[in-house]
From TrEMBL:
Compartment annotation: Membrane
N-terminal signal peptide: none
Key word Transit peptide present: no
Alphabetical keyword list: Membrane, Transmembrane, Transmembrane helix
Occurrences of domain Methylamine utilisation protein MauE (ranges): 25-153
Family matches, as Pfam families: MauE
Coiled-coil parts of chain: none
One Gene Ontology term, aspect cellular component: membrane
Name of the molecule in the record: Methylamine utilisation protein MauE domain-containing protein
GO biological process per UniProt: methylamine metabolic process
InterPro entries: Methylamine_util_MauE (IPR009908)
Membrane topology summary: Multi-pass membrane protein
Segments crossing the lipid bilayer: 20-46, 67-85, 91-112, 138-155, 167-184
Provenance organism: Paenibacillus cellulosilyticus
Amino acid sequence: MCYYPLKTTYAWTLVEALTWKVGVAILILSGIFSLLFISSFTAKLFSFRPFLYAIIDFNIIGKQLNWKIYLAAFTVLGLELLLGVTFSLHILLGVAFIAAFVLLTCFSLLFLRQQLSKKPIKCSCFGRSDKLTNQKLAIIRNMLLALLALIGLGLQPSYSSYENPHVMTFLVYSALTCLYQMYVEWGYMKKLKKEAAVG
């Protein structure tokens, strides 16, 4: 009696189940990074002026507001928007995971440098805020996200695009991040009005 067909069927079922689980993991990771980068882009855009001064506080490019600061700001905004769109549309995920890892690692190194120099900073990473950034928490968060990007890269089988970009996913994520940012801005304006009334 021959059991090869049964073994082949079992092995194929196992491969299909594993492929499905990997696909779900990639879907979850791409969703996380899509929301992260679109939200970060929207937050920086709504609080562009504080974001410029946050770049100055890092003291990498210069200590005054000049064209280099604006160039750095638009570069970061462009990269975050591009990554948010790429992850939400599920295109070029291999390249996107590499870019996300590099960007998040750079952010972690900047915060680590700031932490070692014992200089406080308001980074305005996810919206306008009067509170100083918890730099240790920011380093841990960015390194964990960088690790997730590496995991996503390991799960991603190729650098090719998908045939059917998830346009609806992009629209939903964009709407969610815009609503969240409007909520943050509304809370900030409400706080300012309350302080003005007390003053």
